[in-house]
Amino acid sequence: MIPALLHTGTEMRRFGRGMLPPIALVTIMCLPLIFGGLFVWSYFDPIGRMDQLPVALVNSDEGAKGPDGKELNAGDQVVDELMKQKPLDFKETSAQEALDGVVEGDYYFAVEIPTDFSAAATSVTSDNPRSTTLNVAFNNANGFIPTMLGNAATQVMVNTISGVVGTQITDQMLVGFSTIGEGMDAAADGAGRLHEGAGTAEEGAGKLADGSGTLEQNLDKAHDGAAKLADGAHTLDEGIGTAHDGATKLADGLTRLDAATAMLGDGAGQISGGVDKISGVADQLAGAQDNLAAPLVNAATQLRASGVPGAAQLADQLDAAVADLYAKGLNPELTGQIHQLRDGAAQLAGQLGDPASEYRSGVSQAVSGSQQLAGGLERLKDGSSRLTVGADQLADGTSKLAAGSRQLTVGAGSLRDGLVELDDGSGELALKITDGAGKVPRQEGENREKAAEAGGNPVRRLLTAQDLTPFGVGLAPFFISLALFVGATIMFMVLRPVQQRALDSGVAPFRAVLASYLPALTVGVGQATLIWIVLEGLIGLDAAHPLGLWVSMCCVSAVFVAVTQAINAVVGATAGRVICLMFMALQLVSSGGLYPPETQPKFIQHVHSWDPMRFTVDIFREVIIGTDVPGSTAANPRPVQAVLALLLVLAIAWTLSSISAWRGRIIMHKDLHPELTV
């Protein structure tokens, strides 16, 4: 049963006779190479050969002075870097020659580095920072794809130039950051000293506040004292006025006293003379009295001594008479007093009458002193008047000073509070500036060069999954699918989708389908094998799974052969070839082999969901590129889904072909006389 199913009948044997049938068979097997081999080879790596694309490069940069005062020619540096990396085949030329070359087709496009390129590159530290620009001239007459590739290439140039210029700019900024860091260190030191000074000032402000409070209290006392002083000055002024008046009167009285003293001196002299005379008479009377009393005393003494009776009484009487004489006469005490009076009168006459006497001298000095006192009091009166005015002014001044000291006390308190805040703020400022200074990047030498390189090229691409494939490798799944479907389409231009002899012999419809399918499958496997040999052996596709690629291509060819057989069997060879071409075009645009389906219209996205070529592209991507991503253990489900979907397509195609074969047992009029033959 199985060998009968696999029997190819006479379909293949008819290509062994003559010359043209074998050539036709070989041609059918080789035609898919146009898509599966030639297309892949032609577009294998156009991006990798961009360095052969002639492009005009014009350096019009005039240079500029850098921030350090040195001459900077960024344009020359960019040209050197582009010539070194050579992303394109740059040709240095003039601006006019570049434009003429683009028009004439000598260059695909032209790039000019403008005159202010260096000035713009160094403007980051100026008052007018701006970006550097490149002038690019395209000519669409040179082709759309070259223009598109050139546009992408200019982006590569921009990245290269940004790296060169950005490194220089970043280096300048790093130098500035180092300067800023040093300045912030100095600022931090200054803030620290400010913090220390603020603390000292805070202590001084506290003392100032305390001192101003004490000063305020003392000034209040001083004001009270000044007020009392003013009152005392007024009282003193009045008292000095009164004393001045009294001193004037005293001087006048003493002057008159001096004159009267002179007159008293004359009278005192006369009195002294009279007293002398009285004293002389008194002395004489005293002598006479003594002479008179002496006999009486002697007689009494004798009487007592005589012992005569009655003599003692007589003696007592004589003593009494003597005592009475002295008592009523000039006794020694009275005589002494007269002598004292004489001496006093003489002394008084001397003091009052002699201008050189102590008294007269004292009176004269008193007169002179009283006159000086009057003059001094007059001057003192003037001074006391001024003192009164000054004391009043002092009282007013101390009043104002006391008010000012109260304001000073309030201000000193505010100053102390402010200095407390300043102390806290300066301490925080010092900490933050120190912290900020530590965060300012400071690079020197090789580290600065590395930092400038990192800053000028902040983003670099690191492919952690898979490297980007060449253009041809990326399109190979699409072109292989296209080639195999084209091969399956053209083979039924010489092969019959269903052998009529098999149908006429009465075999089962599916067996009749296999009788035509197996020769076509043999051709399809041959097509797949030729394409695989060219891709792997000649072009160097280097698939991830080479043997898997060959098996997949053979299986996909088997499915496409079944699909094209079914189409031709159902609608006929003429219409089937047209429908196959239309179906191929629809599959191509909806397969996702070129652009993601999400970027296409909704209808194409709907077709993509059941497009057989979509599943063949998924299988070929898996065996050519692979999906092994480092760090991921997930499995790609799309190949398994694609195999199941293609098996379903194969089953549907065989079913339709079998139905068509069953219906083909009846020859229709349209089969005898088709309306159109291709």
Textual characterization of the structure:
Among the domains are: 2-44 and 470-628 and 635-667, no CATH class; 220-404, Helix Hairpins (Orthogonal Bundle), CATH 1.10.287. It has 20 helices and six strands. Helices cover 74% and strands 3% of the residues. With 678 residues, it is mainly alpha-helical. The strands form two sheets. A four-stranded mixed beta sheet has the order 4-1-5-6, with helices on both faces. The protein starts with a helix and ends in a 6-residue tail after the last helix. This is ABC-2 type transporter transmembrane domain-containing protein. Residues 25-160, 474-624 form the ABC-2 type transporter transmembrane domain. InterPro entries: ABC2_TM, Phage_infect_YhgE_C, Phage_infect_YhgE_N, T7SS_ABC-Transporter, xxxLxxG_rpt. The chain crosses the membrane at residues 20-44, 471-495, 516-535, 547-571, 578-595, 642-662.
